[in-house]
Each structure stands twice: as C-alpha cells, then as structure tokens.
C-alpha cells in the first residue's frame, strides 16, 4: 500500500495545482515483458510543493530515477498523468514537450554536461541563447553571485575545479527562472567539500530565491539538505520525511535492507 504524506497525497485533486510545481497522478512505467518485465513505477501519485527542496531516495532499482525522468518529461509514462504547473505532459506532442522542457524545467546531472569550448558565462546562458531569448540581467547577476562564480565567468570548464563546474551547471539550470529544477545525483562526481558547497547553493536557491528543486540521491548527507525526503521501493512511494537529518535518513534506509520491509 502506498503511503504518502498529507502534503503530497492529494496532489492530483488540488484545484489549479497552485501549491505544486509538479505532480503525478497514478503514473505507471513498465520495462520489458514476460519473465524480464520490470515494474519501475506502480501507480505513483505525488505532488512536489513549490518553493521547496525535495529529495527522492530508495534502494537500487526502486524507481527513483525513473520517477524523476518521467516527471521531468525525459521519459514517457505507460499510464497516468504528469503535470508541470497546470500543463499535462502526457498530452503534449514532441515539439511542445521540447519547448516546455526548455522554458519551464532546469536540469542538473551527475555529469556536468558543459560545452568545453565555451566560457562559464556562455555555458550558463547557452539554453537561452539557443532559444533566442535574452536573460533577465538582474536575475542572472543574482544567480551568479549566489553561486559565487563571478571571478570565474571567463574561464572554460578545463580551467575550473569539479565543484566549480557543477556550480556552473547549477547556475545554468537557474538562469532561465524555470518552474522547477530536477537534479540527478548532482554531487556524485564531487569530493565531500565540493559536494557540500553545491548542496548549500541548491538549498540557498530555494530559501533565498524561491526555486523548487527535486533531487535524486543515494547519499543521506545530501538528503539532509532537503526540506523533505520521499522514499521509494518497488516502484511505490512508501514513506516521507520532513526536516530530514542524515542520521534519520540513514536509519530509514536501513529498513529497506530487510526483506519484505516497506514502511
């Protein structure tokens, strides 16, 4: 039985979905068939609150990355609905979906995905340049200062540390003022100090700039930076935790190592 928190359980029924930057209603995703069939998502209903930092955790194969990819419009669902704001992604054609991802969603991945021949500033503004849009200079300046990159804007990725490169990627995701940012293991390639800097920046972007962030992670220390944690196992959300600490998250994750334990 799926167990969702009160803040997320009724996401699909909220009029206008005003409190949610993204939401999913009864989404399912299955890979393969027959003996090779894998149920990655099993009728998941969840809402991502605006202006909050949400972490998604679960054991390997729990469906956490699939959930993020489906909610971000990077993968399709087999059934159910996915919304960004009031827009139903499942009703969009490919070109409409591409435009929505470009204009409404920011992405941060474990691999920094920076263009090596461009400067840090050019990498930050690249999505807007491709779209033919000029950045809001006041907002762009605020993002650059928040991420602490102003002295490095003319440097190319090869001239930046791993932590600085990931901060460029974070700034790029924020620069267009997206509806929501999805981060997939954003500190996976970083040392602990650089990882803490990036996580601190993400948390500050939520608290100081009103951003909404969803982060998939396997690290309890990373999850502790979030406002809430959603726990998945066997393709279902089985628990939520508000105001997480690394110790509480680690203790909860240990329960998934016990056969038959979900909640």
TrEMBL record:
Domain annotation ABC transporter: ranges: 22-259
PROSITE patterns, per the entry: ABC_TRANSPORTER_2
Signal peptide: none
Listed InterPro entries: AAA+_ATPase (IPR003593), ABC_transporter-like_ATP-bd (IPR003439), ABC_transpr_LolD-like (IPR015854), MacB-like_ATP-bd (IPR017911), P-loop_NTPase (IPR027417)
GO terms for MF: ATP binding; ATP hydrolysis activity; transmembrane transporter activity
Keywords: ATP-binding, Nucleotide-binding, Transport
Keyword Nucleotidyltransferase: no
A GO-annotated cellular component: membrane protein complex
Gene3D superfamilies: P-loop containing nucleotide triphosphate hydrolases
PANTHER family: ABC TRANSPORTER RELATED (PTHR24220:SF685), IMPORT ATP-BINDING PROTEIN (PTHR24220)
Protein name: ABC transporter ATP-binding protein
Organism listed in the record: Actinomadura rudentiformis
């Amino acid at each position: 039985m799926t167990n969702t928190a009160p803040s997320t359980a009724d996401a699909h029924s909220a009029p206008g979905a005003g409190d949610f930057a993204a939401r999913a209603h009864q989404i399912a995703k299955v890979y393969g068939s027959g003996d090779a069939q894998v149920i990655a998502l099993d009728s998941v209903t969840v809402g991502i609150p605006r202006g909050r930092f949400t972490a998604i955790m679960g054991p390997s194969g729990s469906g956490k990355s699939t959930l993020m990819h489906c909610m971000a419009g990077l993968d399709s669902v087999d059934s159910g609905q996915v919304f960004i704001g009031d827009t139903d992604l499942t009703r969009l054609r490919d070109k409409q979906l591409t435009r929505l991802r470009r204009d409404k969603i920011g992405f941060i991945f474990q691999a920094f995905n920076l263009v090596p021949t461009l400067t840090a500033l050019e990498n930050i503004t690249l999505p807007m340049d491709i779209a033919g849009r000029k950045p809001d200079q006041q907002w762009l300046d605020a993002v650059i200062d928040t991420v602490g990159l102003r002295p490095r804007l003319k440097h190319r990725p090869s001239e930046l540390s791993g932590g600085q490169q990931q901060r460029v990627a974070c700034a790029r995701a924020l620069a267009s003022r997206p509806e929501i940012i999805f981060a997939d293991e954003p500190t996976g390639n970083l040392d602990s100090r650089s990882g803490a800097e990036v996580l601190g920046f993400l948390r500050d972007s939520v608290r100081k700039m009103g951003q909404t962030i969803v982060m998939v992670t396997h690290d309890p220390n990373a999850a502790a930076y979030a406002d809430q944690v959603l726990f998945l196992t066997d393709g279902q959300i089985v628990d939520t935790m508000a105001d997480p600490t690394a110790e509480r998250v680690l203790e909860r994750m240990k329960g998934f190592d016990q056969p038959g334990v979900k909640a």
